[in-house]
Amino acid sequence: MAVEIERKFLVISDGWRAGADAGRILRQGYVAHDGDASVRVRLSGNEAWLTVKSGRTGLVRDEFEYAIPAADAAEMLDRLCADRVVGKTRYRVPHDGKVWEVDVFAGAVEGLILAEVEMHSVDERFDLPDWVGGEVTNDPRFRNSAIALLQGFETAD
Hints:
Elements: E1 3-11, E2 24-33, E3 37-44, E4 47-54, E5 60-67, H1 70-79, E6 85-95, E7 98-105, E8 113-118, E9 132-135, H2 144-148
Antiparallel strand pairs: 1-5, 1-8, 1-9, 2-3, 2-6, 3-4, 4-5, 6-7, 7-8
InterPro entries: CYTH-like_dom_sf (IPR033469), CYTH_domain (IPR023577), NeuTTM/CthTTM-like (IPR012042)
Active site: 30 (proton acceptor)
Organism: Sphingobium chlorophenolicum L-1
């Protein structure tokens, strides 16, 4: 079983940009979402994935991700997720032995920037970069599925 353990934070400065990669534009939508599970489709250029996630229990959730054809993902986003789509650019930023993913959102919540870090265990210790602020891991308003429901989101691509 695949398990995801991650923490999420608000980004409070542009300090992350100095170490970031070139970024990747993502368009993602939710085929289904309730408190117990979500089914997400994500498209980035010619790559696409279908992901099934369980509801969050603390920092841990089950996650199953599968590569799918980009054309199928585009069709699912347009036909099945039309009002539940998030546009963002994701940057990977190394810091103190971890790789942080920084999401810069587009559309209705342009200006929102979140940083996530995956962990090996719930009690793993690591240093926070000085460009992260308050933790929002357990705040349901900052889940991508909740952000998508704020729509009309415009896509970043």
